[in-house]
Design the sequence.
């Protein structure tokens, strides 16, 4: 008999279940979204790649900040995690100026209260990574907030700790990834509190769904960068002239296989572990 589990939440491409009072099960599907729309075609093994990558980073950052990971399931796509009280903000760190950061900078010269030097270009590397929190929108896009607003939400003392932890995590992972040919332009994490009030890293960490991965060998400031993982999907969708509202288009086999190969390549470059070895035994990413 399968154990009875209660579904407690859905993300765009993930599901969350309750195992007991203290533990949740986070399950990553093979669904893919582009331009904020989940497509009808899945990318085989995408959920395994993201679960394995996230667990890899959890294992390597636990000295910087403890995290919610308790165990990986044999399916390679499910993570048993400690139930936390999540903080009411998204922790975003940007090392490069892109997305809403680039938009805000062009309009105001600042991003979330960080006044930046004039004359920066699209996708340019920032002098230092910046912490740019956002609110968790129930629907639609998260809204960037300034440091004062973020400190109101969680308290000044906790804000300072959350900013320090976030920047340390980003510096660690972005340096590690850059040495393996992948730029992490920006990233989003969710922090929470355990029963004793300790700050812990939850959700997923440094996956291509929670971060922008760029191929380092194609990086050039002054223009938008290709996405390491989703570029084939975006190019295909653009070629159709699709209006980016649901329903999204089905993907042809060549786009699916090319995209799967990019996810597997990201996994293998970053972890140094063969993806087949992960599928055979997910715990290989933990040591
Ligand atoms: C938690 N989400 C986001 C929503 C998903 C993910 N360890 C935790 N403790 C308490 N709450 C959460 C977590 C985690 N991770 C994460 N919402 C609550 C989310 C829907 C589907 F896969």
Sequence:
């Amino acid at each position: 008999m399968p154990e009875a589990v209660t579904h407690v939440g859905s993300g765009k491409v993930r599901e969350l279940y309750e195992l007991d009072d203290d533990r949740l099960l986070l399950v990553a599907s093979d669904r893919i979204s582009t331009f904020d729309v989940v497509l009808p075609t899945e990318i085989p093994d995408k959920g395994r790649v993201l679960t394995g990558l996230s667990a890899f980073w959890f294992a390597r950052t636990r000295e910087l900040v403890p995290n919610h990971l308790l165990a990986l399931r044999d399916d390679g796509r499910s993570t048993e995690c400690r139930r936390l009280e999540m903080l009411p903000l998204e922790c975003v760190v940007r090392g490069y100026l892109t997305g809403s950061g680039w938009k805000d900078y062009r309009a105001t010269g600042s991003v979330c209260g960080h006044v930046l030097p004039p004359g920066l270009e699209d996708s340019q590397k920032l002098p230092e990574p910046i912490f740019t929190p956002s609110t968790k929108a129930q629907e639609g896009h998260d809204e960037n907030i300034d440091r004062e607003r973020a400190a109101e939400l969680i308290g000044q003392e906790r804000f300072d700790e959350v900013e320090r932890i976030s920047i340390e995590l980003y510096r660690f992972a972005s340096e590690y990834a850059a040495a393996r040919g992948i730029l992490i332009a920006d990233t989003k994490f969710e922090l929470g509190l355990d029963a004793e009030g300790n700050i812990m890293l939850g959700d997923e960490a440094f996956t291509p769904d929670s971060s922008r991965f760029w191929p380092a060998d194609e990086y050039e400031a002054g223009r938008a960068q290709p996405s390491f993982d989703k570029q084939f999907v975006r190019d295909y969708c653009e070629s159709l002239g699709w209006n980016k509202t649901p329903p999204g288009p089905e993907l042809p086999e060549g786009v699916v296989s090319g995209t799967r190969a990019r996810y597997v390549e990201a996994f293998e470059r970053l972890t140094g572990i063969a993806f087949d070895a992960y599928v055979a035994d997910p715990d290989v990413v933990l040591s």
